[in-house]
Amino acid sequence: MNLHSAIVQSITESAGNVFTTMLGSEIASGEVSIETTSPEPNDGVVSFIGIAGSWAGTGSISCSPALACRVCAAMLMTEATAVNEDVLDAVAELTNMIIGSVKTDLEHHLGPLGLSIPTVVFGRNFKTRSAATTEWINVRFDWDGEPLLIKMCLAPSDKAHAIHHGGGNQTCALEV
Amino acid sequence: MESDVLVVDDSAAIRKILQRVLRQTGMAIRSIHEAGDGEEALSVLGQHSVHLVLSDINMPKMDGLQLLASLKASAQWRNIPVVMITTEGGETKVAEAVKLGAAGYVRKPFTADQIKEKLVGILEPALPL
């Protein structure tokens, strides 16, 4: 199995496990794609968490404000009708658990990795960019008709540095 | 005897979930205190008597492993059982927590049963009504 396949499989399994365990609900995985161009502007809630070690990158979850409220309601068993502190915190923790689980899976292949504290952004028409990497693995999910996107970019730390300074795109190309 | 528990996690969502799960375990719990990081946890411990600490590992300011080390180095708090609850599933962090004296380890995402299983033998069950 190559790293790309391992990441997709781990994201799919981790998301399913977290939704079942913490939200009491199933989530369906769908299209997998590679994003190599600058991402389109975002509307809604985007949560990021950094991965560091011999390989470095970012894991991200994007969803609509409505889906973020539903995540909060299911996770905290409380009503959430607008994006507030509880909603942002619930999405951050969802990201922490899913990407944290993926990180643990990848450590079997890549050695010890560290995880940052998650950051959540809520707004309209904003763009995001990773300074180190240009290739993202996108895994789209459907939660009762609402789309949820989980993304990850990962590259060897020395390669990530080289890419940052104009090197080629080496992300996820290695066999593990 | 009813116990007092301290939940330490930088995520308010996880603190709320653990509050709910702890109440569902059927253990004799009198109060549940909260802290958002290790420093805040030490402050809470200075003000309240606590019989069990449930702590995340990855937190700002003072992380869970630093908190665990501080508690085990303290004559006052070294006997308080500390259960780590975290996304960190790596062998390194687990081994470090065990080496420092953690009483147990639960990986997120968790179920109420997994939490209860770890608390058996640490907290007493509630008396039947």
CATH class of chain B: Alpha Beta
Shape of chain A: globular
Q: What percent of residues of chain A are in strands?
A: 25-35%
Overall strand count of chain B = 5
Low-pLDDT parts of chain B are none
Structural class of chain B: alpha/beta
Q: What is the annotated CATH architecture of chain B?
A: 3-Layer(aba) Sandwich
The strand count of chain A comes to: 7
Shape of chain B: globular
Strand pairing plus helix content of chain A: what structural class?
Answer: alpha+beta
Could you name the CATH topology of chain B?
A: Rossmann fold
From N to C, what is the helix and strand string of chain A? HEEEHHEEEEH
Distance between the termini of chain A: 7 Å
Low-confidence stretches of chain A: 162-176
CATH class of chain A: Alpha Beta
Characteristic terms for this protein:
heterodimer, A: 176 residues, alpha+beta, Chemotaxis protein chec, seven-stranded antiparallel β-sheet, 4 helices, 7 strands, disordered C terminus, B: 129 residues, alpha/beta, Rossmann fold, five-stranded parallel β-sheet, 5 strands, 20% strand, globular
Explain the layout of strands and helices.
The complex is a heterodimer of chains A (176) and B (129).
Chain A: H1 3-23, E1 28-35, E2 42-53, E3 55-63, H2 65-76, H3 85-110, E4 113-115, E5 119-126, E6 136-143, E7 146-156, H4 157-164
Antiparallel strand pairs in A: 1-6, 2-3, 2-4, 2-5, 3-7, 6-7
Helix pairs in contact in A: 1-3, 2-3
Chain B: E1 3-8, H1 12-24, E2 29-35, H2 38-47, E3 52-55, H3 64-72, E4 82-86, H4 91-100, E5 104-107, H5 112-119
Parallel strand pairs in B: 1-2, 1-3, 3-4, 4-5
How is this structure best summarized?
Chain A is an alpha+beta fold and 176 residues long. Helices cover 38% and strands 34% of the residues of chain A. In chain B, 39% of the residues lie in helices and 20% in strands.
